[in-house]
Amino acid sequence: MALVQTVDLITPIVDDPYVFGQVTAANALSDIYAMGGKPITAMNLAAFPCELGLEILGMILEGGRSKVEEAGAVVVGGHTIEDDEPKYGLSVTGIVSPDKIMTIGGAKSGDILVLTKPLGVGVLATVLKWGKVDEQDIKAAIDGMIHLNAGASDAMLKVNTHAATDITGFGFLGHLHNMMHESGVSARIVLDKVPIWPQAREYVHRKMIGGGLKRNWEYLEGMVVFDAGIDELTKAILYDPQTSGGLLISVAPDDADKLIELLKQTGTPAHDIVGEVVGGQAGHINVRIGR
Fold it and tell me: Which end of the chain has fewer beta carbons closer than 10 Å to its terminal beta carbon, N or C?
């Protein structure tokens, strides 16, 4: 038995404090699931302005606890400091069999790439922060963030999975680049197959994007090549920073269909084959419109 550990802390991306706690906990737990682990304990980390009132802090912590318990783990304590801006996160400990630890460095040429949640929550969180949309209008995307990656993790461990990562702040292309770079291979992505929250398409084409997306784009300069005909705003969604995104799984081609079927059975928000692993320059990504 081995321990896997992670820590994550974010600022509010939704208005409802209980939902913020849920999203934050699901986001923190995701790292454990990406490693193929099972969460066992979590510790709260919070920074909070006292003038907001302890009732709101209590709702945030209660939301987090609800997802930790759904994961089969226990909140065993934590630490809180006073700050001008609310922040909440979790330090999570999990267990995993040493021979089943999943890393980002094992992808092989010929593997199929599968994504388990749609992209675009960073764009939607931005327009929510700007007051351009109500939470009920993007409820499906919020429910997607709340959804634990537990089922997706269980599914990938039942097939010949070579590498996995969760999609968070570096965006889809950033985390894909990291996986390909560490594996010494490159990737070919089919844009038409990438799941995207419908509202995200609308708002990104209204140029409502945040600074994190732009930084991800700049970081990957020279590592991503797009087919002609893919417009700049569509590209932006692939760079969009995600909170509590899905798992990106690199699976042996003979097991891809089995993985998709298992993901469907777990009720994951998405179960899409988005591309394949190929040889070539490590970390390089080619995005095509279609096959």
Answer: N
Start-to-end CA span in the chain (Å): 42
228, 230, 231, 233 alpha-carbon torsion, rounded to 10°: -150
Sign, Cα dihedral of 184, 185, 186, 192: negative
Residue 78 Rama label (left phi>0; alpha psi -120 to 50; beta): left
Write out pLDDT tens, residues 35-76.
999 999 999 999 999 899 899 999 999 999 999 999 999 999
With a CB cutoff of 8 Å and minimum separation 6, the contacts of 26 are 67, 145, 146, 147, 148, 149, 244
- Give the amino acid at 286: N
- As a whole number of angstroms, the distance between CA 246 and CA 195 comes to 11
What's the topology of domain 2-100? 60s Ribosomal Protein L30; Chain: A; (3.30.1330)
Choosing among 3.20.20.370, 3.90.650.10, 3.60.20.10, 3.40.1360.10, the CATH entry for 112-288 is 3.90.650.10
Q: Give the integer Cα–Cα distance in Å for 240 and 14.
A: 17
Listed by start position, the domains of the chain span 2-100, 112-288
